[in-house]
Amino acid sequence: MAIQVPSMRLTTPAGTAVWPFIDTPGEDFNKENEEFRTSLVLNAEAASPIIEKLESLVARAADFFKEQTGKNLKVRTDRPWNDEQDDAGQPTGNIVFKFKLPAKVTRKSDGKVIEFRPKVYDAGGKLLGGEAVPAIGGGSTLRISAEARTYNVQGVGVKLSLVAAQVIDLVTRENNRETAEDHGFDAVEGYVARSDFEKETEGDF
Cα separations (Å) of 160 from 8, 37, 132, 144, 191? Predict the structure, then answer.
C-alpha cells in the first residue's frame, strides 16, 4: 500500500490574476519545460484562512516525514505565497499565491509521456473546452482550485498544483496590452513600423 504524503485540496475566493498561463502553457523557470501557471492576488482577509490551512498542512508533513526518516527535518521558509509589493517596493497588504502545473511529465517506470491541462469554467460553472477556452490575461478575476502537496527536498515544504480555474471576470490578453498612451507617448513624425503583411507582400507588385 502506497504511503500517502500529506496533501489537501483547496479553492480560493475570487482574486486578481497576474501573468496567467492557463489556456496555454508558458516556459518554466529553467526554460526547459512548459507549465501552466498563474499568480493570484487576494486581500489579507481572504488570504488568511488559506495560509492557516497550508501552515497546518506543513506542520503535519514535518511530523510525517520525521516518522518516515527518524530525523528532525527543517521546514523550508520559502512558500508558494508572498506579500504583494507596489512599484516602490512597499507592501500593499495583499498576498500573492503562486500555482503551477507541468504541461507534461515522463513516467519513470515506462518512459510514457503524460500530458496535463487545468480545467477552465465560466462564472456559471460551465466547463469550457477547445476554442471555448478564452485567452485569459492579467487582471482577470479568477477562483482557483488547487492541490496543496507537501514534499521533503532540502527541508519540508509545500507547493500549489493548479487543478482548475473559474473565470469570474475576463480580461483577454489582447485587451491587456499596454499602449503608447499608457507610457505617455503621443504620435510624432518619424519611424513607422510596417505590418507583417506588408513585409511579406513587399515586391509582389
Answer: 10, 10, 26, 10, 47
The set of cell numbers assigned to 26 is 508558458
Instruction: Specify whether the CB–CB gap between 91 and 47 falls below 8 A.
Output: no
Q: What's the whole-model pTM score?
A: 0.81
93-149 pLDDT tens trace: 999 999 999 999 888 888 899 999 999 999 999 999 988 999 999 999 999 999 999
**Number of separate helices (H) and strands (E) present in the chain:** 2, 11
21 sits in which H/E element: strand 15-27
Collapsed DSSP state (helix, strand, coil) of residue 155: coil
The closest of 104, 97, 103 to 145, measured between CA atoms, is: 97
